[in-house]
Predict the structure.
Amino acid sequence: MSLNLVRAFSCARTVFAKKMVVYAPLPNLRNGQNLMEHIKQSQYAKFDKSGAKQAALSLHNKERIRADDIVTVVYKNQKPVTGQVLMVKRAGLNSTILLRNKITGLGVEMNIPVFHPNIIRLDIVRRPANYKPRNRHYYIRNSRLDVGELSGGSK
Amino acid sequence: MSFIFKRAQSSISNATTALNELKSSKQLISPSVIPYINSNAPITSRNNESKRQRRRLLERPGLIGIKRGMTCFFDNQGRRLPATVLEIIQNEVTFTRNVTKEGINSIQIGAGYQKPQNVTRSMLGHFRNAKVSPKQYLSDFEILNEDNLLPLGTELKADHFKIGQFVDVISVIKGKGMAGVMKRWGFGGGNASHGASKSHRSAGSTGQNTTPARVLPGKKMAGRLGNERNTIFNLEILDCNADNGYILVKGCVSGSKGSFVEIRDALKKYGKHLINLNK
């Protein structure tokens, strides 16, 4: 540390005593930006360059993915997955959507980490005419409201 | 340090020769006449130096971080891993001890910044001697060799650790206050029904009858929970960034957000015993 950072410090108690030398702290990193905010932004810049996934979850976007939508997830290295959204969990890079489908009459659910690097995009296949109330549709499981057998291209 | 273990060989041999001379003269001599021998005090196993020899030590100090929260981390294999964010700021060497003077090789590292108004004058002098700003948190890291002591005022950055290496993280667990046995020790508690009365979360029996007529020491009971130092061993470093001053550690770390944590190289992987090195 260079000596030009040194400044003399005195407080009321030590007025009569010899003045104490106090050294200045090291410079602030990230221009004082909050660390968690900085990490969040740098992760978005790395895993969602176009901002499409952020927009798909953003509450300010009217075209966002909502519970009740039917969504197809397109992967880089595996077949696409289709299902009805039961809920959207907004947690930064850790955001997930829960998809429900029926395969040969058996209910199947998948938690999709939206920002996973292997996920290319999320396509909304169909939106309902009227959205159900509530944002978490767990109650439709095994009821008369339950999803049918969904496929990506149909309807 | 082998000279410390060397007994006073010469003085013992002197004494034996003196005894032999006395025997050869074939005189009746009382034991009190045998000359008094000055020898060095033996090195006991409880001696501080021999304790240090047996201790597992690292070659370099660790860092002090501030827990900021958790996030997720996608690795090269496409796995999503939980990660704790530890901020590394204002880490500087404030003091060192060496084995010849203090009997221990250690480096004291300070982290954070405190206003000088809130620091005592004696501590201000301590920071002035190292030519560093007043620190919020100080911690001593014991190291193996005197040669590896760092000069005062050395700044340590997040790239002290390498990606993929393992570290131990030491911090204070969140205090839970007075807690019952079910929460504190995982006891089963009592029945919910079947005539159970006011004993749904109670500890049950604490011992036998007339023998021993007391509760044995160490019995698990209700009491204060948390607010103690905890070490989590062998956490992997997922990411470190010196420019922006942070480390991502795989998994969770004890303590609340904003609490100070000590991060060192994994003792069980990289630690060495001096007693083995001297063999």
The radius of gyration of chain B is 28 Å. Chain B has seven helices and 13 strands. The domain at 61-182+223-277 of chain B is CATH 2.40.30.10 (Elongation Factor Tu (Ef-tu); domain 3). The longest helix of chain B spans residues 9-24.
